[in-house]
Design goal:
300 residues; Nucleotidyltransferase, domain 5; five-stranded mixed sheet; globular
Length: 300
C-alpha cells in the first residue's frame, strides 16, 4: 500500500504521521526535540524507520515542516534565527537520501493545510490558524489560497505588535503576540515562578492567584491580537492549534468572553473559534499533504 509520512519538527517535540493518499491515519508518533541537529535528525530517522517497519514497506512520499522561512526551492528552511537554529540550511532530501525530493514547509503553514485537508477547517475558504506552543505561528487561507507572501513571511501572526514599547522578540517585533503568550516566555512573564504553560495553567485551574493573573492577562493579549487579525483578514473561522490547546476551557472560555466583548460584528455574525481537530499533529498532516500535492496526488 502506498502511503506518505509527514514530519513536524518543533522546538519541543517531533510529531510524525503516516497517512494514505486519502488522508486516513495509519500511524503516529511523538519524540522529544532538541536544538541539536544530530539529536533531532537521528530521532527523525528513527521515527521513519519504525513506521516503515510497522507498515511492512517504505513510504512513497515524505514531507517535513519546521519553524522559519522555507527556501525558494522548497528543500530546506532558509531562515530560522533565535530558536531551533540548527534546522537552517539542512537539505532533507540529501540528508535522508530519499528517492524523491522531500518538500519542506513552514510549520504553521503546514498545520493550516492539515486542518483544511482533514481537520476543523474542511469546507472553509477564509481561515486564520494560530499555533500556540513554544512560539506562536500562524497561517492564512484567503479565498481558498494559502498566503505565503513575497519571501514566505506571510502568516507569521505571532509577530504582530501588541505593544510598541515592548521588548523586541526574536524577529525584532516590539511587544509581540508570541512573547505575550508563547511558552518561550512563561518563566519571564511569571517572574520564574512557572517554567511552562502547562504548569502555569495547572496552577490557574487550582485557583493560584499569581497564575490566574498571568494566564488571564496572556489570554487577553491573545484576544486583542485575534480581534485585530479578524478586522484585517475577515475570516470565516479562527482555528487554534499547538500544545497550548490542551488547556481546553481554561483557554477557550476566557478567550470567547474577550471576543464577545470586543469583536466587531457589523452584520451580527461572529467569527467561529475552533480548536484544531488534528491537535498537535496538524503540522504533520499538512507536511504529508504537501508531499502528496507536490506529486499531484491530491488537491484541496
Amino acid at each position: 500500500m502506498q502511503y506518505a509520512i509527514g514530519i513536524d519538527l518543533g522546538g519541543t517535540n517531533i510529531k510524525t504521521v503516516a497517512v494514505t493518499k486519502d488522508g486516513d491515519l495509519l500511524a503516529q508518533a511523538t519524540d522529544l526535540s532538541a536544538d541539536d541537529r544530530v539529536i533531532w535528525a537521528e530521532r527523525i530517522r528513527g521515527q521513519i524507520s519504525r513506521i516503515e517497519a510497522e507498515q511492512n514497506g517504505p513510504a512513497e512520499w515524505v514531507g517535513l515542516s519546521a519553524p522559519g522561512l522555507a527556501a525558494p526551492d522548497g528543500r530546506s528552511i532558509a531562515w530560522m534565527q533565535g530558536r531551533l537554529e540548527s534546522v537552517q540550511g539542512l537539505d532533507w532530501t540529501d540528508y535522508l537520501q530519499w528517492k524523491h525530493p522531500i518538500p519542506v514547509l513552514n510549520d504553521a503553514h503546514a498545520a493550516l493545510l492539515g486542518e483544511v485537508w482533514k481537520g476543523a477547517a474542511i469546507g472553509y475558504r477564509d481561515v486564520i490558524l494560530l499555533t500556540l506552543g513554544t512560539g506562536v505561528g500562524g497561517g492564512i487561507l484567503s479565498d481558498g489560497r494559502l498566503l505565503k507572501g513575497h519571501i514566505g513571511r506571510a502568516g507569521h501572526l505571532g509577530h504582530i505588535s501588541l505593544n510598541p514599547y515592548g521588548e523586541p522578540d526574536i524577529v525584532g517585533t516590539p511587544g509581540s503576540l508570541e512573547d505575550a503568550i508563547g511558552d518561550c516566555t512563561v518563566a519571564l512573564r511569571s517572574r520564574h515562578q512557572f517554567d511552562s504553560t502547562e504548569t502555569l495553567v495547572g496552577a490557574y485551574k487550582e485557583g493560584d492567584d499569581l497564575a490566574t493573573e498571568i494566564w488571564l492577562r496572556s489570554v487577553r493579549y491573545l484576544g486583542a491580537g485575534l480581534i485585530s487579525l479578524i478586522n484585517v483578514i475577515d475570516p470565516e473561522v479562527v482555528i487554534l492549534g499547538g500544545g497550548m490547546i490542551k488547556a481546553g476551557a481554561a483557554l477557550f472560555g476566557p478567550l470567547e468572553e474577550i471576543l464577545d466583548a470586543y469583536e466587531w460584528r457589523p452584520t451580527g455574525g461572529r467569527v467561529r473559534l475552533l480548536p484544531a481537530a488534528l491537535g498537535e499533529f496538524a503540522g504533520a498532516y499538512g507536511a504529508a499533504y504537501h508531499a502528496l500535492n507536490i506529486n499531484n496526488e491530491v488537491s484541496l
